[in-house]
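As promised in the previous annual report, we have extended the structural survey to additional targets. Below is the entry for Probable membrane transporter protein.
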Amino acid sequence: MDTMTLWHLTGWEFAALAFAALLVGFSKTAVSGANTVSLAVFAAVLPARASTGVLLPILIAGDVLAVLTYRRHAHWPTLWRLFPAVAAGVAVGTLFLVWADDGVVRTSIGAILLLMAGVTVWRRRTAGAAEPEPDPVTSRAGRIKARSYGVLGGFTTMVANAGGPVMSLYLLSAGFRKLGFLGTSAFFFLIVNVSKVPFSAGLGLIDGRSLLLDAALVVFVVPGALIGKWAVDRIDQRLFEQLVIAATVLGGLQLLLR
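The corresponding structure token record, generated without further manual editing, is:
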């Protein structure tokens, strides 16, 4: 029995998943928020809960490619500030998945994404231009912001692999430029996504059936990453930030309107 028959996929559905896998590679090396479109495609073609388990290994493949591409640009002080809060968010997300059905998951994540996009647009309009390089956050307000985004990022990445937009919005609000943004997010999501594997397997979201589909789709991540690496040098900072926010809004609306 082949993978398409095992998952009852039509040719068009498999093509949609392949495109979404290609978009994963592109999002990891170019526009991080575009990953929400992949999330929406997987959730539309597959059952919402099952889609998170299928998508996770594909995301990890994209993370590895992003780390190899941007490893020199990571800002580790920011990562160390975020990880404890993210771990708490992953724990809460795991408990949430024990009882939440597909509809609750979609509605919750969509609402959070739209809220975060709105907050980011408002902050950027009132605060003016961002600093060219991120400074260590030592103020009380800065620590609260990092913890809040960290918990939300951990929660959303656990329940629907939708942590990308939340953390993208945090990095934009912290003043990261393109390469620092991509390098920091690459290491962040590689570490977080790998740490989610035992939880997802324990919930039955990753199994032999899902890994067979992953094996057929992961090959499409590589050309997407190469396209992203080519495109990122041709996207200016303002357009880059607008694309991240627009992709976040699009993903949130797709989840809410399904």
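The two ends are 31 Å apart (CA to CA). The CA atoms of residues 7 and 50 lie 11 Å apart. These points will be discussed at the next consortium meeting with the crystallography subgroup.
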